């Protein structure tokens, strides 16, 4: 037959009949009734007697019954003493019991099984053997005053409970027929004799009996003392004890108080006074003297009871607290129901129970207890959730609830069908992991995946985010949808596991949770349209991230209050330790205070927290630490410290006379920190001024005013007050007084109208405030009446006392007009009325329940060391404009310290600056949006690290340790600062012998790195030093540590360290060297003499060495000059035979220092002979025109620079470097050059310098005359040049010195500061000397952006010469200039070799 589903919205309605379901599945697929009709109950049996534990079960076929004892099946094969009856009951012929062998006592369970259906287990029944133990507490002899109450106790342990009766002088007290009501036998076995007389003096003993036998106690004597008129303060003869009673039972709270005169005893429950009756049929009644009986106790009777006694004469009172717990047997509020479910789906068996104490839940499947696992989970404390159903999960499931009173069980059946089958057409509850529709509900007439009507497989299934315990999947719609896609099913399972789960969704993304770390999973997705399920996507394999090898949460964390200020916290080690647990950290905080969490490092498995506040809630959590650091924090547990008596009296007490016979008293409770518990009442003691007799009135704790009535006219009265908790009464205030009125207020007329009336409307209520009538009329006001109605006044009316000034009218209609009236009244009636008309606000339209999407694009921008700006966007808003009442919550946290709680702030914009962060700390940020009562999920978390800041604290524990064997040194040790605020890059040590100096006068010892120790040397022996230290990081220096005082050892090596504050502050006596007392010269003078001798000797040695080296250098120079005097060989001459080839060194590096050193030795430029070149290296060249060369040089002194012309800029064009080898040469005479730099060189200037050096390689000693536009000029000898031939340049050198512009001109100041330039334009490169006229004919100007020097005329040159056109130059000219530089380099080689000889 056809099977169909109807899909409407997100809900599914299945229609059909039970007959259709039977046709589809058959009878074996229905729920078969199977349950217990009779279960065993607890019983007590005498030893040797038979016992029968009943059990009967209904099922088809008939169930087979077995029995368990203490969780183990009974093996009854061959057992003649124990048998199972045909009804299923267990019979024990004779119960065996001895001191060492108790085989029959224990908990029994009946187990019933139906083949092919399952197994169920009955409730547990406890079998006990009757016993009567010894008397644990018997009566004790006592003495009491006449009129007091005598108490005798008798406690015995018995099964079943014993009945206790009393004997007086070994004669039974028949209290049932005894007319003397002074004797009372309480249910606990206590005998109470109230208002004792002399005739009560006797010996008393108790007798306990049950089915096992009878026992008697020892006798106790009662002695009576005549009381007379002696006044005695109240004291307890019997304090009430905490009690428990089964719901519906009776209980007696004992309380006996003795005092003279007889005290007044009052009972309180949860701060409210109760009035017991002497009639035993009442719910609260007195038994004996002051014992409170509660009949047929209910849950409402659970609470705190106080027996309070006071004495008027002694002005004292005493209180005793007792807790009553009414126990309730477990009961089901919602039982699990039988379910049909599909393979791979998730189901949830609900089981809601109640009981006092709250029952524990145990889930059982086919008779076996279910252990929670990855697929069987206990949720919400009681429900069973099964993930990824498989066929083997079918069976009977039982929810068993038990507490100290009893246990119950109920069962439900689970039937699993394939996903291509229809579920039965009967309403059943099937739970899935999401609220999305079950895709199987969208099955049409053709559900074949190969049908052309169903969609193809979803595309591009990808893991968007893979975490340790969840995976975010995304995908695209199928390529062929064949209609509208209505839902998707995501199938997933652990690789290799037969148990597959399914999650349904209507979007193209889904988060799969409850996964296991480091586990490989398989994911498949199929789409559904109106025709049914489509094709399955290919399998996607995803492996979850490994979990950090940190310890898991501790187990069984509990906190137990031990007193008003002490709580003991205990826990068990984590089940997942991932190594050895090193220690634990206990975090605790006061719930009412923000940011009050503190932590304590604990080694063991418990810790006692002390010095807590009284009656305060504290939260506790524990983090385990292993070698990898902090683990997962445990869940928080909350415990409250015990309450105590108030530590402060009521405050703001005022007394207002109301009339000639009454005074109104107002007060406020004690401060919250001093209440130490819930205030259950106030004790008001009043008296007439001057009188010693006072009266005590107890006022309820919820009331803050009281009227003292019945007073005398124009008389002063005094009062004092104290507050009460369940623990007792706190301190009292000082006496304070007020007088009654000499004349009563006028009450012969009605009061006038109140002076004002204000109303504040809301949607469903109106708040009303008013002021009292005029007081100058002296008219009595006893109260106020408020009337209100819809459109008309006084439809409803409320009365208030004269002290109330505000009221909120509830339960009104929105957008409605109300008329409010107010009047004052007294005994004459109501006065004039004032009215106010007001309209309540309109009710806001409920927002549509559309889903809220989390913000996107969250970014954390670091602003400073303590501030981060979080920005985000809201994808649901147009143009990012907020037009409704939504707001955003920013959550941020850090993992240091471990287990830190996240903090949250709210914002109504798309950014928020958090400025309370720690420096150099990584924080995580997430944002969610809230609108009304709806909130989105948290956005994806982003993290960032705050900037560093200077250290916020000084280094810790600065200590000084002497260095063994060296009295002038010490070892300083310290610890890093508590707040480094970044990576510590070094420390700064300050030390001095006078701690009164300012910091910059101290000796400073900087240290680089993060080392924590250093040695300070060269200290003076037997001297006081003061040390302090600062830490530094990349952002600055932190504060200084405390000053450490240290005294260096004496000569014998002993250490004298003074830490007293006088010497630390410089107020101690001045120390003197002990060596001054010795014979001979002081040791310090000897040190000075030795130092002077050593210094003079060293200076002498250095002087002699310098003189010897200089003489040797001069001799070598003279020899080389003689050997190097020769003329230039003729052109084309051959190389001199026997000449030794010496390869010059590379002078690219350090040659400038060598030249400068040589120039310092030769203050004046000496004439040099022409250095000849080898024939192969030189080409004769005609003298070039010197005018162009001179116009290119600048040797002026000062900051002025050369004004570059277009011709100079053309030289900036980069040329391809020429790499030509340089031949070796013979040693030459010493060549002395004095280099003078007086301005920063540009590239053109460096070319000029190079040209000068090339031309000066063969200069003459006599002056040279050149021609120019402005006349003939004579050059100094240094500028007289010849142009030798040579090989092209290989090596490089510094530019030569610029000569003076005229003879006798002062040499310019030396300046070696040069700007770094690239290789192509470095001043160290020596291009050949080429006149500007030649360059202009060969090269076109190139535009180059160069800094322009000031327009300053060069001394000794004509500016017009700089722009004169030159002629073109040839390759031969360039080669000649290069050869010229080659010779210069060889000369420099000879110079450096000579300089390095010494």
UniProtKB/TrEMBL annotation:
Record key words, sorted: Disulfide bond, Glycoprotein, Immunoglobulin domain, Membrane, Repeat, Transmembrane, Transmembrane helix
Pro residues: compositionally biased ranges: 1295-1309
Entry membrane topology: Single-pass type I membrane protein
Pfam families in UniProt: fn3, I-set, Ig_3, Neogenin_C
Transmembrane stretches, start-end: 1085-1109
Ranges for region Disordered: 430-456, 1036-1078, 1117-1144, 1259-1333
Cellular component, GO annotation: membrane
Location of this chain's protein in the cell: Membrane
Boundaries of every Ig-like domain copy: 33-126, 133-223, 234-323, 330-415
Biased composition (Basic and acidic residues): 1044-1065
GO biological process, one term: cell-cell adhesion
Family to which this protein belongs: Belongs to the immunoglobulin superfamily. DCC family.
PANTHER family: FI24025P1, PROTEIN SIDEKICK
Entry protein name: Neogenin
Gene from which this protein is expressed: NEO1
């Amino acid at each position: 037959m056809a099977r169909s589903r109807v899909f409407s919205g997100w809900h599914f309605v299945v229609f059909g009949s039970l007959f259709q379901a039977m046709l589809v599945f058959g009878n074996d697929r229905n729920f078969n009734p199977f349950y217990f009709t009779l279960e065993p109950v607890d019983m007590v049996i005498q030893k040797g007697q038979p016992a029968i534990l009943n059990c009967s079960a209904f099922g088809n076929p008939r169930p087979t019954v077995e029995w368990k004892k203490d969780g183990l099946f009974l093996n009854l094969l061959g057992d003649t003493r124990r048998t199972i009856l045909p009804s299923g009951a267990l019979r024990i012929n004779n119960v065996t019991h001895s001191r060492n062998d108790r085989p029959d006592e224990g908990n029994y369970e009946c187990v019933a099984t139906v083949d092919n259906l399952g197994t169920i287990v009955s409730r547990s029944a406890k079998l006990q053997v009757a016993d009567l133990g010894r008397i644990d507490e018997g009566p004790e002899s006592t003495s009491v005053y006449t009129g007091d109450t005598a108490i005798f106790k008798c406690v015995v342990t018995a099964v079943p409970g014993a009945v206790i009766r009393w004997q007086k002088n070994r004669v039974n007290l028949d209290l049932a027929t005894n007319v003397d009501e002074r004797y009372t036998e309480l249910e606990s076995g206590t005998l109470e004799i109230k208002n004792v007389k002399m005739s009560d003096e006797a010996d008393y003993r108790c007798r306990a009996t049950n089915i096992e036998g009878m026992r008697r106690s020892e006798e106790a004597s009662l002695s009576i003392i005549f009381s007379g008129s002696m006044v005695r303060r109240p004291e307890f003869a019997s304090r009430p004890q905490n009690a428990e009673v089964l719901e519906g039972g009776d209980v007696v709270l004992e309380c006996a108080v003795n005092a003279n005169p007889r005290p007044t005893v009052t009972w309180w429950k949860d701060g409210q006074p109760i009035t017991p009756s002497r009639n035993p049929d009442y719910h609260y009644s007195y038994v004996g003297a002051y014992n409170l009986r509660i009949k047929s106790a209910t849950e409402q009777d659970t609470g705190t009871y106080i027996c309070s006694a006071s004495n008027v004469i002694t002005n004292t009172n005493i209180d005793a607290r007792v807790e009553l717990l009414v126990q309730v047997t477990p009961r089901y509020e919602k039982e699990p129901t039988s379910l049909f479910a599909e393979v791979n789906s998730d189901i949830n068996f609900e089981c809601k129970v109640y009981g006092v104490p709250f029952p524990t839940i145990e889930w059982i499947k086919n008779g076996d207890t279910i252990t929670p696992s990855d697929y069987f989970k206990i949720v919400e404390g009681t429900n069973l959730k099964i993930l990824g159903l498989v066929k083997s999960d079918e069976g009977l499931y039982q929810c068993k609830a038990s507490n100290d009173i009893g246990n119950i069980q109920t069962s439900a059946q689970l039937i699993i069908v394939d996903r291509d089958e229809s579920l039965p057409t009967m309403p059943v509850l099937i739970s899935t992991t999401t609220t999305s529709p079950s895709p199987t509900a969208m099955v049409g007439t053709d559900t074949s995946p190969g049908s052309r009507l169903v969609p193809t497989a979803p595309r591009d299934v990808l893991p968007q985010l893979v975490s340790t315990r969840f995976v975010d999947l995304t995908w695209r719609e199928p390529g062929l949808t064949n209609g509208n896609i209505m839902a998707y099913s995501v199938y997933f399972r652990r690789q290799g596991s037969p148990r597959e789960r399914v999650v349904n969704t209507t979007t193209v993304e889904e988060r799969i949770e409850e996964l296991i770390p480091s586990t490989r999973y398989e994911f498949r997705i199929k789409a559904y349209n109106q025709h049914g399920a489509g094709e399955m996507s290919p399998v996607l394999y995803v492996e979850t991230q490994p979990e950090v090898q940190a310890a898991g949460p501790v187990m069984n964390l509990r906190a137990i209050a031990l007193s008003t200020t002490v709580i003991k916290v205990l826990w068990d080690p984590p089940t997942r330790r991932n190594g050895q647990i090193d220690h634990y950290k206990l975090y605790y905080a006061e719930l009412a205070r923000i940011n009050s969490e503190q932590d304590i490092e604990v080694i063991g498995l418990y810790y006692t927290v002390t010095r807590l506040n009284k009656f305060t809630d504290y939260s506790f959590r524990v983090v385990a630490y292993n070698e990898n650091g902090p683990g997962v924090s445990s869940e928080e547990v909350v415990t409250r410290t015990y309450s105590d008596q108030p530590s402060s009296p009521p405050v703001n007490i005022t007394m207002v006379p109301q009339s000639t016979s009454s005074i109104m008293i107002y007060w406020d409770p004690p401060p919250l920190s001093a209440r130490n518990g819930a205030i259950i009442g106030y004790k008001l003691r009043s008296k007439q001024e001057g009188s010693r007799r006072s009266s005590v009135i107890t006022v309820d704790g919820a009331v803050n005013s009281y009227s003292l009535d019945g007073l005398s006219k124009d008389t002063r009265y005094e009062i004092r007050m104290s507050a009460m908790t369940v623990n007792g009464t706190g301190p009292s205030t000082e006496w304070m007084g007020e007088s009654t009125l000499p004349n009563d207020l006028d009450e012969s007329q009605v009061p006038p109208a109140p002076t004002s009336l204000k109303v504040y409307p809301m949607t469903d209520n109106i708040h009303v405030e008013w002021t009292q009538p005029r007081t100058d009329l002296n008219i009595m006001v006893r109260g106020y009446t408020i009337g209100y109605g819809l459109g008309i006044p006084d439809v409803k009316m409320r009365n208030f006392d004269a002290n109330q000034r505000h009221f909120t009218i509830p339960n009104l209609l929105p957008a409605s007009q109300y008329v409010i009236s107010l009047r004052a009244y007294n005994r004459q009636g109501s006065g004039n009325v004032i009215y106010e008309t007001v309209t309540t606000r309109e009710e806001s339209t409920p927002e549509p329940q559309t889903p809220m999407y989390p913000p996107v694009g969250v970014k954390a921008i670091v602003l400073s060391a303590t501030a981060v700006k979080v920005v985000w966007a809201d994808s649901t808003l147009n143009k990012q404009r907020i037009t409704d009442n939504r707001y955003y919550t920013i959550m941020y946290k850090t993992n240091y310290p471990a287990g830190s709680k996240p903090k949250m702030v709210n914002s109504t914009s798309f950014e928020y600056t958090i400025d309370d962060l720690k420096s150099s700390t990584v924080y995580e940020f997430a944002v969610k949006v809230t609108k009304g009562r709806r909130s989105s999920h948290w956005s994806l978390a982003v993290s960032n690290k705050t900037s560093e800041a200077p250290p916020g604290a000084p280094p810790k524990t600065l200590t000084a340790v002497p260095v063994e064997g060296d009295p002038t040194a010490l070892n300083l040790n310290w610890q890093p600062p508590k707040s480094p605020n970044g990576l510590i890059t070094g420390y700064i040590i300050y030390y001095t012998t006078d701690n009164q100096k300012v910091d910059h006068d101290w000796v400073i010892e900087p240290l680089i790195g993060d080392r924590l120790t250093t040695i300070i040397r060269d200290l003076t022996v037997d001297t006081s030093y003061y040390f302090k230290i600062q830490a530094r990081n990349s952002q600055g220096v932190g504060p200084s540590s405390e000053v450490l005082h240290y005294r260096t050892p004496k000569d014998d090596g002993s250490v004298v360290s003074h830490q007293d504050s006088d010497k630390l502050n410089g107020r101690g006596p001045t120390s003197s060297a002990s060596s001054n007392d010795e014979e001979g010269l002081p040791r310090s003078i000897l040190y000075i003499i030795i130092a002077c001798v050593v210094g003079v000797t060293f200076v002498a040695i250095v002087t002699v060495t310098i003189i010897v080296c200089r003489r040797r250098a001069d001799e070598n120079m003279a020899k080389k000059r003689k050997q190097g005097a020769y003329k230039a060989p003729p052109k084309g001459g051959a190389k001199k035979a026997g000449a030794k080839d010496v390869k010059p060194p590379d002078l690219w590096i350090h040659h400038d220092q060598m030249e400068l050193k040589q120039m310092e030795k030769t203050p004046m430029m000496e004439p040099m002979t022409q250095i000849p070149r080898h024939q192969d290296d030189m080409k004769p060249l005609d003298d070039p025109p010197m005018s162009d060369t001179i116009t290119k040089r600048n040797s002026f002194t000062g900051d002025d620079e050369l004004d570059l012309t277009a011709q100079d800029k053309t030289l900036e064009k980069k040329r391809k470097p020429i790499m030509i080898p340089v031949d070796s040469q013979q040693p030459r005479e010493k060549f002395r050059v004095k280099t003078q730099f007086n301005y920063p060189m540009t590239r053109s200037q460096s070319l000029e310098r190079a040209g000068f050096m090339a031309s000066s390689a063969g200069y003459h000693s006599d002056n040279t005359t050149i021609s120019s536009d402005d006349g003939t000029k004579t050059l100094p000898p240094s500028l007289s040049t010849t142009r030798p031939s040579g090989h092209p340049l290989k090596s490089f050198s510094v530019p030569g010195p610029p000569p003076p512009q005229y003879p006798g001109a002062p040499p310019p100041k030396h300046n070696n500061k040069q700007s770094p330039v690239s290789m192509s334009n470095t001043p160290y490169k020596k291009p050949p000397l080429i006149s500007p006229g030649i360059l202009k004919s060969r090269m076109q100007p190139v535009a180059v952006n160069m800094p322009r020097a000031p327009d300053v005329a060069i001394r000794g040159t004509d500016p017009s010469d700089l722009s004169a056109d030159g002629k073109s130059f040839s390759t031969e000219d360039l080669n000649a200039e290069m050869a010229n530089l080659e010779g210069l380099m060889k000369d420099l080689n000879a110079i450096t070799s000579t300089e390095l000889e010494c």
